[in-house]
Amino acid sequence: MTLNVCAFDMEGPLSFTDFAAEICKLLGPRLKYERLDEFFQMVSNYDDYLIETPGIIKELGIKSYEPGDTLKLLAPIYVSFFTDGELVEISKKKIGLIPGSNETINRLKRDWNISIISTSYTQHAHNVARELGIPLDHVYCTALDVSIKSGIENIEEHLQVLIETIFRKYLDKDSQLEVVIDDLNHFFWKTDSDYVKVMDKIFVRGGHRKEAAVEEISKKLNYPISDMIATGDSITDKDMLRRLNEEGGIAITFNGNQYSVPHANIAVTSPNLMGVMAIFMNKENIWDFLADWEAQYPAFADDPKSIPERIIDKSLKEYFVQNNFVPRIDNLKKASAEKREEVIKVQKAMRKEVRGWFGALG
Fold this sequence. Notes:
Number of strands: 7
Strand order of the largest sheet: 3-2-1-4-5-6-7
Distance between the termini: 39 Å
Oligomer: single chain
Order of helices and strands: EHHHHHHEHEHHHHEHEEHHHEH
Number of domains: 2
CATH architecture of the largest domain: 3-Layer(aba) Sandwich
């Protein structure tokens, strides 16, 4: 039997934990610095700035930069203060599976070849995959080899600049990124420091590199992208979602934001990942299903018992009833700008509800 093929982003759809942000917070006591969650937010916002500002990457002479390269910018710090074993153990304690992720993956295993395409570091991505029973050779993520720390002679000198000077300036100016952009540009791109040399050894699986993973999966399985389903939620997923959308596949933004919604053709807003099962179970007649669902959604939006059984599988309805939720599912294929803005608003609200402070990250 030929299996269907799907791919999930991990942080968001499968796990609420942003692992890189989590380990940044944990560095505080080790380094005797406070508010490192805000430090991570600063670097994450800087990452968004580099992606969103036309011409800036070329102007700075950056050879390659993709959404999610925050993990590249911070990698020299992480490898300097954590062992591989410590990172694995931190991940195990912070797996943070999204409600319904186990049930969703277990159902899909019967008929689907499942891959994870994640920006996250290997230590976390592999732990989540093991927890869900997804083979590790189906995981495309960011390798973080802590042995590269040998290339850094004095990390404290770099922290003096990056945290004690630049980050302190950022906090003193009410967390306004624009006041430190020139400083960050100089630190990351205008010096030939050992920090930068170690940073450049990291290949982050984000942006077009996620799209490349989709191509690799398609080629390996001899399965057309036009028949695949991909689920993502953030700026790192936009190229993966765009590619499936362009080729006629199903591109789902799950509790996404202003970066994922414009590139998806279906939005699923739900506190539980099982909300996406309605898409998978109706893949062959997806657009007719969506027309039916959207037309009748107001009548059952607050009461899963009222969902007509002719619309979805009986067992799926029973799951919705037992867990007391109804996913909002929107067809974005021909959605107006106003409709997309509405979807972005409700997705961001659910994203924050499900993921907490991690949901504020791009």
